[in-house]
Amino acid sequence: MGVDKKGCGEMGGEVNPAACPLCGKHNQCGNLAEQRISDCWCRIEEFPAGLLEQVPSAYKNKACICKGCLDRYKRGNLPG
User: Which tens digit of pLDDT belongs to each residue from 22-79?
Assistant: First the structure.
């Protein structure tokens, strides 16, 4: 799956950690919002390996997948 580089969190060549690396929308990362990481929405979710594999290597461990992409993947609306 290709990624639209205009919308996936690039800021002048740098990764925007607040943007989902798959769709470019705000990922609602609790860590970035200065919440305790244990309070972030992602802590109660399971991220399938097939979805994680879609994150481009430049974005791995730098920008979180948003809940919308996670939900679409689980419903079968994102390729995997």
Answer: 999 999 988 787 767 677 888 889 999 999 999 999 999 899 999 999 999 999 987 6
- The residue with tokens 């390996």 is 49
Per DSSP, what are the bridge partners of residue 11? 14
Q: Model-level pTM?
A: 0.76
41: Cβ contacts below 8 Å, ≥ 6 apart: 28, 30, 67
- φ/ψ region of 77 (left if φ > 0, alpha if ψ in -120 to 50, else beta) reads alpha
67 in helix, strand or coil? helix
